[in-house]
Amino acid sequence: MDLTMSMSTTERARVESQANAFNRALEGQGGASQELGRDDFLKILLTQLQNQDPTKPMEDKEFIAQMAQFSSLEQMTNISTGFREMNSLLSSNQALEVLGRTVEVRQGDQLVRGTVSSVTSGATPQITVNEQQFDYSDLVRVVQ
Questions:
Q1: Where are the domains of the chain?
Q2: In this predicted model, what pLDDT tens digit does every residue of 8-42 receive, in sequence order?
Q3: Greatest CA separation found in the chain?
């Protein structure tokens, strides 16, 4: 069932206005996130429920399908968060493995060669080479 067909012109204009405001907000963020999250999904569902024609309510199977989609979105969000945390731990462990080893690190257009004297952990591990801090991602090669 197409929800827009059962909506009055005023209701359709209100929903369209809300969608346009949402799109402008996304553009105001520099388009940083073009994906809908769970909060966005709930806002859309709530708007849909608020603006439905009371004489033609949403059918049960449509509502159940949307709730199943929301549940799937929630689980995917949890999995994504878990992967981010695991990636952070792996990066920290990889950085620890180069402690005391001679490495080459990219600094602008040049390579700096030296021994890793310290390592920090976290989402973006840092290594210290020749008393300078570098991101672990700047590591080009482990020499020794």
A1: 3-90, 93-142
A2: 677 777 777 777 777 676 666 544 455 666 777 77
A3: 75
